[in-house]
Amino acid sequence: MTELFKTICADPPWSFGDKLPGPSRGAEKNYSVLSIAEIENFLVTENLVNQIAPDARLFLWRVASQQEEALRVMRAWGFIPKAEIVWLKKTATGKRWFGMGRQVRMEHEVCLIGIKGRPEVLSKSIRSTFEAPYTRHSGKPDAFFDIVEQLSPGPYLELFSRVPRVGWTQLGDEFPKILNEEQIKAFLSSPVDLVSELEKAQHKHFCDALDKTTQIPAEDWYIRFD
Predict the structure, then answer these.
(1) Is 16 helix (H, G, I), strand (E, B) or coil?
(2) Buried b (16+ CB within 10 A) or exposed e, 69-78
(3) pLDDT for 125-143, tens place per residue?
(4) Interval 32-53: pLDDT, tens
(5) Phi and psi angles of residue 60, each rounded to the nearest 5 degrees, phi first
(6) Helix, strand, or coil here: 149?
(7) Is residue 210 domain-resident?
(8) Which residue has the higher pLDDT, 65 or 81?
(9) DSSP letters along 107-128, please?
(10) What angle is formed at CA 60 by the lines to CA 11 and CA 14, rounded to 5 degrees?
């Protein structure tokens, strides 16, 4: 019997409904988005409800303009909000990030933490904020996943994944169906104007998987590195 997931991370493709100028400003110009109702029903739609352990922890990224909606999603997925982690963004040179915002200019993102049952806490020394460089639109840094693994036990499930991660089961429509050695090497050697140096650094853990196989299949957008 497959072991149930004890830790879930999700960065839903929230729909903002605004029309920002420019070719890349706004979520809908960077990836497919879902309505709040679609996100609330996601676990049912993807047949994941019965794959989550009775004692589990959810890390749910929210956007500042949809705080109530994020809490609705967390409760719809069967979790109780308990805490949050704040990512303080930095530039590549370590300066404070200066983002967009209609009220204030955003330099942070918030990840809600919710629980069901009584999940194990692996470390009692994890702080509620961390600093890491901005990667790309909606991308989350490796430092966040390091915190998750220090705090919460596996098996690990990431929803709405964009970057393959060792030791995780992942689901996301931006995932390639097949990752082979040639594709990964081509990505890592792409010119800077096509792929940022930060993105390349985030993808270097692909090499860990290449030590075991040169072709990593993914069925129905799922992929797991063990």
Answers:
(1) coil
(2) bbeebbebbe
(3) 999 999 999 876 668 999 9
(4) 789 999 999 999 988 999 999 9
(5) -120, 115
(6) helix
(7) no
(8) 81
(9) -EEEEEEEEES----S-S---S
(10) 45
Q: Is residue 217 part of a domain?
A: no
pTM for the full predicted model = 0.74
pLDDT band with cut points at 50, 70 and 90 for residue 102: confident
Tell whether 198 is covered by a domain: no
What is the domain-level CATH number for residue 124? 3.40.50.150
128: left (phi over 0), alpha (psi -120 to 50) or beta: alpha
The burial class, CB within 10 Å (0-12 / 13-18 / 19+), for 54 is: exposed
Cβ–Cβ < 8 Å for 152, 113: no
| Strand pairing report for 168-171 and 156-159 | parallel
What's the total number of domains in the chain? 1
Question: Residue 31: which of 19, 14, 44, 18 has the closest Cα?
Answer: 14
Contact 109, 136 (CB under 8 A): no
Angle at 30 between CA 222 and CA 72, to 5 degrees: 70
- The range of the structural domain enclosing residue 94 comes to 5-160
Q: Which residue reads 């988005």 in tokens? A: 33
